[in-house]
Specification:
By secondary structure, this protein is of the alpha+beta class. It is built from two helices and three strands, in the order E-H-E-H-E. Strands 2-1-3 form a three-stranded antiparallel sheet, with no helix packed on it.
């Protein structure tokens, strides 16, 4: 991961159909909802934790 305070682009690359409920909630909390959607967030400990929970569903790029 990059250092806190930097911008990251999070892209959902997999569907959440057969995922656990906490992973579905995390995807929605990040502002995603379907594959190939992207959002930009400032990296902080909360966002890093969310990314860690759904790392198999998303692609993260530093901006």
């Amino acid at each position: 991961m990059t250092k806190a305070g930097s911008k990251v682009k999070i892209t959902q690359v997999r569907s959440i159909i057969k995922c656990k409920q906490n992973q579905k909630d995390t995807i929605h909390a990040l502002g995603l909802g379907r594959p190939n959607f992207s959002v930009v967030h400032t990296l902080n400990p909360q966002i890093a934790g969310m990314i860690n929970v759904v790392s198999h569903l998303v692609k993260v790029e530093t901006i």
